[in-house]
Design a protein that fits this description.
- The protein is α+β, with helices and mostly antiparallel strands.
- It is 16% helix and 35% strand.
- A hairpin with a 4-residue loop joins strand 1 and strand 2.
Length: 62
Amino acid sequence: LKLLPQGTHDWDKFIKPSEMDEWARHSDLTLKSMIGMTYNPFTKTYKLESDVSVNYLCFYQK
């Protein structure tokens, strides 16, 4: 689609949900909610979904 400049994303810097969860647990945080998010560039809309493999939102509580 070439909507973003080449090199915008570096997958080596992507934080996996499992890594985020591990860091949070080491900080005594409890995961309350995690949900995936997709963006449709044609309709310019976001959608929440169960797939957390690329974009995700997390809610942790101390």
